[in-house]
Design brief:
Blueprint lengths: L1 E7 L7 H5 L7 E8 L18 E7 L25 E2 L8 E5 L23 E2 L9 E19 L10 E7 L6 H7 L4 E8 L5 E4 L10 E9 L3 E2 L1 E8 L3
Antiparallel strand pairs: 1-2, 1-3, 4-13, 5-7, 6-12, 7-10, 7-11, 7-13, 8-9, 8-11
Length: about 240
């Protein structure tokens, strides 16, 4: 058997019927026809870096697929720019985890999801530290934004939530993740070290934030370790 995959980027509001019949979209190759091996992972590189909203899969001549995964970065929605009340650190709006020093039980990217946390495994959790220091992670926004409110959710984390946390920020055009990580120790504090409680939604209002300047990246430090279910930063994108 073999497979090919097409992609398209449908404008907002286009119905599925018009995507299927091709009347409102232009399909382009992501994967030319390639042979598949049975009972195995078949990994291919995309032929295009264009944004996509839909994939069209063709099997030759027939057969079965257990899973399809398409890896990449979420593109932000232009309609979210200059709209107050946007979760600017959501995966849905293009935010991505850049680095975490520890992801023993759950990855940092989990806390950027929009849906309600499902369990501890659906959050970011680090191992118990036996040495001095604390755990931390860096998230990149899809573009510069200002923040009016921060939400830290420790749902499901009861004996393993961080005692305290802090957030620092920067606003840079740098795209080299290694440089971003190296510079993060000198970023500007947005939230000075605050106490957290177990299994609770913590809300920090605008007046509790230390500045209201545009940000492009955030560093969250948890002390000394533990788990967070969700992180939300409510504000608006600016100066796209």
């Amino acid at each position: 058997p073999a497979i090919s995959i097409l992609g398209c980027c449908a404008p907002s509001g286009i119905t599925d019927d018009r995507v299927v019949d091709g009347s409102a979209v232009e399909w382009f190759d992501l994967l030319a026809r390639e042979a598949l091996q049975g009972d195995s992972n078949n990994i291919f590189v995309s032929a295009s870096q264009q944004p996509v909203t839909h994939l069209k899969i063709t099997l030759y001549p027939d057969g079965g697929i257990a899973r399809l995964r398409a890896y990449g970065n979420v593109c932000s929605d232009d309609n979210s720019y200059e709209v107050k009340g946007t979760n600017v650190i959501s995966q849905q709006n293009g935010a991505r985890a850049v680095f975490a020093n520890d992801e023993h039980f759950g990855c940092l990217n989990n806390i950027l999801a929009e849906h309600e946390p499902l369990s501890m495994a659906d959050g970011w959790e680090t191992r118990r530290r036996r040495e001095p220091g604390n755990d931390w992670g860096i998230v990149a926004l899809s573009g510069p934004a200002t923040v009016d409110e921060i939400v830290v959710d420790t749902k499901f984390f009861k004996g393993n939530y961080p005692d305290t946390f802090s957030i620092s920020t920067t606003c840079i055009d740098e795209t080299d993740d290694d440089l971003i990580i190296a510079q993060s120790n000198s970023w500007t504090e947005l939230v000075r070290r605050k106490k957290l409680e177990m299994n609770q939604v913590h809300v920090f209002k605008k007046e509790e934030l230390l500045h209201h300047n545009p940000i492009s990246h955030i560093r969250i430090d948890i002390f000394p370790d533990g788990g967070i279910a969700r992180l939300k930063m409510i504000g608006e994108f600016v100066d796209k």
